[in-house]
Amino acid sequence: MSAPFTVIHAGHAATGEPAPRTPTQVPHRGGTANPSAARLQAQFPQFYERHEVIWGDTTVYVRPEAILDVVRWLHDDAGEQYDYLVDVTAVEYRDVEHPLEVVWHLRSLPFRRFLRLKAQLPKGTPLRVPSVWPVYRGADWLERECFDMFGISFEGHPDLRRILMWEQYREGYPLRKDFPLRGRFSRAEQLRQALSQNPEAKYSMEELTIADAFEDLPQDMRQRLAGGERTGE
Amino acid sequence: MATKRTIDVALSTTGLDREGRPQRVPLVADGSGQVTAMAAPPSLEPELEGEHMLINLGPQHPATHGVLRLVLELDGETVVRCIPHVGYLHCGFEKIGEYRQYNQIIPWTDREDYLNSPGNNIAFALGAERLFGVEITERCTVLRVIALELSRIISHLVWVGTTCIDIGAFTPFLWAFQERENIYNLLEGWVGARLTTSISRVGGMAADIPDGWLDGLRGFLKTFPKTLVEVDKMITRNGIWVGRTIGLGIMTPQDAINYGLSGAMARASGVAWDMRKDFPYLDYETYDFDVPIGVNGDVYDRFLVRMEELRQSVRILEQAVERLPDGPVNVNDPRLILPPKSKATSEMESMIHHFKLVMEGPRPPVGEVYVPVESPKGEKGYYFVSDGTAKPVRWRIRPPSFVNLSAIPKMVEGHLLSDVIAINASIDIVMGEIDR
């Protein structure tokens, strides 16, 4: 048995602040901004775009290419300590001119702060942002889901594959606004594709390379196995 | 007729390590007599020595709590690598939510983490109310606390019961499910549904509690701690239980935070963080309760933390029953709340009001909001983006099970295959929430 861990207390750096209370009468816009926003502006003036306070939460817009540096600074700086990645997601608006937004929800457990970071990806540009996986291991699946649902590629992610949809899914990215609710393909085609899959015999190439004799198989059989095709039952 | 479920080639071949080198290393002394590696005992099947095996656990395995599939690379019985696959239950809740009004989404929230339906409904309503800018009534606040803690008890009871089954104890499962049945009876008396409750509405609740309901709850609060004591006696110091859980799947507090673990998973690892204390909602700061913290971060600590949370939920419920004030349940806001049915069928104005609310739906102002709550599984939050229409532009579920499960490769590495079952059970996953 190893020695017990030292307990990390949330809010241990927020000494002197009043005990947290249930927020009441939260204003729609305005109110005190998270102090991290001003420090972020001073630290990264070239990447900082603007910030706004909506319903009590501070949203900071930053340049997409700088997100890894910004997040790394927020994580490491002793005065910020955003050590918890709550969520990575994206928003596409109904307005087709409005850029697609990638959203990071960060929480500083020592200071009990919450910060929303946003990067705007204009329509027509490649949907690419740096991955925050080097800073937060918890970003792994969240970024994969965001890639799966929106087609945003997170550069530097170690294993960016589809996660909720299967790897051979060809209809596109379901949460994009141009994706119809019923899917792109007809019901008959969707059914045909679903029946042709054998979800329990689907292995990724990485998994199949664990098996030695996989290399000895003929090329077309390897393709079929990796594609999750039914194996003749 | 037996069906072939996995690929034969993947099951009967030698392994490669991560760099692609064959894993079969000869364990012999070199010419100078120096033994460089421990000589292996002669194997009955020498051709299998050092081979890695690829096995497929799930998605139809009963101990994966749903349709989780784990592809495990085994060295003997030790897990070298674990590759999880999820998504078999994906229903596209978030996409469907973009085509529904806010109150119409609430039935969908029942179905994601179906062991915690009241919790999801209320978390959704809290987020939507922030987005609409309404303040709920005193009575509604306390009723919601009661529903939240009841659903926490349900979820933890199912967790204790099914984990006992996974590890080999059958009796606590029956006791846990019997108590859970009592809570479902209470919920049935409140809203008429047992599993998919849809207990809340934006701005209030689906229904006030019926007369005499609190007496039923008081009766439950009297008998339930006795069951807890029995479960505690049965397994907490049971040699088999302790042997199967201690020292498994250890996460350090730093790792727990970095991997995004939340809820009982983080607290068992020594992260003293509970949304109800640190980012309170529904006046949780006015209740007297303790947050259990583990210091070893293993499966046994997760069990202890959840058992203690059950007792603390009983404490919160006892206080909530005492303080439940009289008064209206729903906010007095005609933008959100339907007129009484008797008026809607007798007065023209109320009928128009009813019609417009049902057909067009309430419209929140432009904005976005993320409101997290402490669900039994961890930090659950709903992120809404509104463009001023009656349907959200984006409705995002922050799924605690999903993020907790993503750490399973780290937790099971180096453990035995049978321990994978215990570690997987300790995460307390609900696939409906992971796949959504």
Structure commentary:
The complex is a heterodimer of chains A (233) and B (436). Helix content of chain A is 23%, strand content 20%. In chain A, the strands form two sheets. Chain A has a five-stranded mixed β-sheet with strand order 2-3-6-5-4. In chain A, strands 7-8 form a two-stranded parallel ribbon. Chain A is of the alpha/beta class. In chain A, helix 3 links the parallel strand 7 and strand 8 (153-155). The mean pLDDT of chain A is 83. The longest helix of chain A has 12 residues, at 139-150. Chain A has six helices and eight strands; from the N terminus they run βαββαββββαβααα. Chain A has a domain at 35-161: NADH:ubiquinone oxidoreductase Nqo5 subunit (Beta Polymerase, domain 2), CATH 3.30.460.80. Helix content of chain B is 45%, strand content 11%. Chain B is built from 18 helices and nine strands. Chain B has a domain at 103-398: Cytochrome-c3 Hydrogenase, chain B (Orthogonal Bundle), CATH 1.10.645.10. Chain B has 436 residues and is α+β, with helices and mostly antiparallel strands. Chain B has helices at residues 8-11, 93-97, 102-110, 117-132, 138-167, 171-191, 213-235, 239-245, 253-258, 264-268, 275-278, 299-323, 341-344, 348-359, 400-405, 408-412, 417-426, 431-435; strands spanning 52-57, 69-75, 78-85, 200-201, 204-205, 271-272, 367-375, 378-386, 394-398. Chains A and B meet through strand 1, strand 4, helix 3 and helix 5 of A and strand 1, strand 2, strand 3, helix 2 and helix 9 of B.
